[in-house]
């Protein structure tokens, strides 16, 4: 389950930020997770709760904002919505679609005290 290592990386980033800002507690972490990122949001929430135990982020709320998949279809020359990696273009059926969005994961916001 790669969500555990992702949660550990998020905690490291959040802890460094909280320490740099002389915070005493992390209240909320907002993540953007792309639909095509291969990250299971519920598994990540579970792992985040586990890895934050005993840290400055213990009890912090983890909010996840879903980012839709998007790609550029070479034959159509258009940007199209994507439901899965390597899926067909919904307009022409071609599989020559280059992913342009929705494969990322980033910490968007951290609320601290």
Automatic annotation (TrEMBL):
Family note: Belongs to the HypA/HybF family.
Metal-binding in keyword set: yes
Name recorded for this polypeptide: Hydrogenase maturation factor HypA
Residues that, per the record, bind Ni(2+): 2
UniProt-recorded Gene Ontology molecular function terms: metallochaperone activity; nickel cation binding; zinc ion binding
Binding positions (Zn(2+)): 73, 76, 89, 92
Pfam families: HypA
Keywords: Metal-binding, Nickel, Zinc
GO BP terms, alphabetized: protein maturation
Matching InterPro entries: Hydgase_Ni_incorp_HypA/HybF_CS (IPR020538), HypA/HybF (IPR000688)
Chain segments annotated as transmembrane: none
Purpose: Involved in the maturation of [NiFe] hydrogenases. Required for nickel insertion into the metal center of the hydrogenase.
